[in-house]
Specification:
- The protein has eleven helices and 22 strands.
- It is an alpha/beta fold.
- The chain starts with a helix and ends in a 19-residue tail after the last strand.
Length: about 450
C-alpha cells in the first residue's frame, strides 16, 4: 500500500476525499487559522504513548525529549501522563519549568553545556546532568562546590560498534557525545575522585531513527552490560540507567513502522532477572523518546499559490516551505533527497495524474518539499500536507530566513481545535534589534 494512504488509514480513518485530523476537516482548520500551519492530533500522541508504555518493562519511566517539539501544550500533556522531561539547553529547561515540570524530573544532556547554563540549572535543582566529558565533570564539580550542593550526575557512554544502529549512528566511531567505552574505567576513577558530585549512573545512546526492534533490544542489552561494569567499578548499585531515545517512525517508502509488540517480547527476555541482580537493586531505568511519541501526530499544511511549468517540469508553489520544515526539504541530514509522505489534502481520492516538484516561497533552489511527487491534478488554492511533521519540523527549521511570518500551531482533541502558538508577525524580526539612532 502507498505509504501516505497507509498513514491516513491508520491515523486519520474518518477521512474520505478530504483529510480529517482528529475528525476535523482540514479545510476548516485552514479557513480558521490561515496557511501555512502545523496541526497536532492529541489522539495520535496518546496512541503512541500507550504503545511504548506497553512495550517497556514496568521498571521503566519515560522522559519526553523536549527538542523534538517544545510546544507548551505538548509538554503539559506528557507531564499529565507522569513523564519527566529531557532537555539540552537552558532555554528548554525554562520551557520545562514553565510547563509545570518539577526540576527534579528534568535531565540535562548535550555535549556543549556552558558554565552559565550549568550554574543556572544547578541553582534551580536540576534532577540530573548527563556528563559528556571529564572536563565537563570537573566544571560541574567546581560549580557544585561553589553552590555548596552535590550535583546529581550520570555519565554518557559512547558504546562500541556492536551496539550501533538506526539512521544516525553514534556507536563505535568518533563522536562529540559522551566518553568512549574503551576509556570508561579511567574516566570513572577520575570522576569518582571529584568532590561535589553525586554519581548516579549512565546514559547510553548509540543511534537514532531505529525501526528494527532487534537493534533496539541489542542496544538495551549492551547498556545493561556497560551498567554492570560501571556498578562493579564504583562498588555500588547504580541509581539510574538511561537508554536514550532512538525509536523511529517511517518517513520513506522503503521503511516500516517499529513493531512495538515484538520489541516488548525482546525486552522481556533482555530484562528477565534484572531485578535479582544486586548491582541493579533500586535502579531507575528510563528512556527519552521524542520523535516516536510526537512525529506522527503532526501535519504541515500549506496552500498552493501557483502552478507552473518550466522546461517540461511542473511545479507547485506553496505559501510554506523549508523555512518551516527543513527536514522535509532534505536539508537536515539527508545525503539523497527522499520525499516525506505528501498529499493534496482536499483531493485524497483523486488519482495521481501528474508529477510535480513541490516548492516553497523562498528565493533558493533548496526550497523544495517534494521532488517528482505523483499527485492529482492540482489547482491554485488546493491544500498540500506533509505528514510525519510533529517532530523536528518547526523546532528544527530556519524560520528567520527571508523574514516570513512564523507558522502557527493548532491542537486538535476530541473533534475540537484550538490555537496553541500564534502566527508570527513581521514586526517580530525587529523586536530584538537595537537601533543606532541616538546611541551614546
Amino acid at each position: 500500500m502507498d505509504q501516505t494512504r497507509s498513514l491516513i488509514e491508520r491515523y486519520f480513518p474518518s477521512s474520505k476525499d478530504e483529510l480529517r485530523i482528529g475528525d476535523v476537516p482540514v479545510a476548516t482548520l485552514a479557513s480558521h487559522y490561515g496557511t501555512p500551519f502545523f496541526v497536532y492530533d492529541r489522539g495520535i500522541i496518546d496512541q503512541k504513548w500507550n504503545l511504548l508504555r506497553e512495550a517497556l518493562p514496568d521498571v521503566f519511566s519515560i522522559c519526553y525529549s523536549v527538542k523534538a517539539n517544545p510546544s507548551q501544550t505538548i509538554l503539559k500533556h506528557f507531564l499529565s501522563k507522569g513523564a519527566g522531561l529531557e532537555i539540552a539547553s537552558v532555554g528548554e529547561f525554562c520551557q520545562a519549568l514553565h510547563a509545570g515540570c518539577a526540576p527534579e524530573n528534568i535531565i540535562f544532556a548535550g555535549p556543549g553545556k556552558t558554565e552559565k547554563e550549568l550554574e543556572f540549572v544547578l541553582s534551580n535543582g536540576i534532577g540530573e546532568i548527563h556528563l559528556e566529558s571529564l572536563l565537563e565533570a570537573e566544571r560541574v564539580s567546581a560549580i557544585a562546590q561553589k553552590q555548596s550542593i552535590r550535583a546529581r550526575v550520570a555519565l554518557r557512554v559512547n558504546p562500541g560498534g556492536e551496539a550501533e544502529g538506526g539512521a544516525m549512528r553514534m556507536g563505535g566511531r568518533p563522536a562529540a557525545f559522551g566518553v568512549d567505552e574503551e576509556t570508561l574505567d579511567d574516566v570513572l576513577d577520575r570522576l569518582m575522585a571529584l568532590d561535589g558530585l553525586d554519581f548516579r549512573g549512565i546514559h547510553i545512546f548509540a543511534g537514532t531513527q531505529i525501526l528494527d526492534y532487534q537493534i533496539l533490544a541489542s542496544q538495551y542489552q549492551k547498556g545493561l552490560e556497560i551498567a554492570l561494569r560501571v556498578a562493579t567499578r564504583v562498588k555500588r548499585p547504580l541509581s539510574t540507567i538511561d537508554f536514550g531515545g532512538g525509536l523511529g517512525i517511517p518517513y520513506f517508502a522503503h521503511e516500516s513502522a517499529l513493531d512495538a509488540q515484538k520489541l516488548k517480547q525482546e525486552l522481556e527476555v533482555v530484562f528477565k532477572g534484572v531485578r535479582s541482580e544486586p548491582h541493579f537493586s533500586g535502579t531507575h531505568f528510563m528512556v527519552e523518546p521524542g520523535r516516536y511519541l510526537v512525529g506522527e501526530c503532526g501535519v504541515y499544511v500549506a496552500r498552493v499559490t501557483d502552478v507552473k511549468t518550466s522546461r517540461g517540469k511542473k511545479f507547485l508553489i506553496l505559501d510554506g516551505g523549508m523555512h518551516h520544515h527543513l527536514s522535509a526539504s532534505g536539508n537536515l541530514g539527508q545525503t539523497i533527497k527522499r520525499n516525506y509522505p505528501v498529499a493534496v489534502l482536499n483531493k485524497l481520492n483523486a488519482p495521481a495524474e501528474e508529477t510535480f516538484e513541490v516548492a516553497g516561497p523562498l528565493c533558493t533552489p533548496l526550497d523544495v518539499l517534494a521532488r517528482n511527487a505523483s499527485l492529482p491534478r492540482t489547482d491554485v488554492g488546493d491544500l498540500v500536507g506533509v505528514f510525519q511533521s510533529g517532530a523536528y519540523a518547526r523546532s528544527a527549521s530556519p524560520m528567520g530566513f527571508l523574514s516570513h511570518a512564523t507558522p502557527p500551531e493548532v491542537w486538535v482533541e476530541g473533534g475540537k481545535h484550538r490555537l496553541i502558538r500564534r502566527r508570527g508577525e513581521f514586526a517580530d524580526y525587529l523586536r530584538d534589534q537595537i537601533s543606532d539612532s541616538g546611541a551614546a
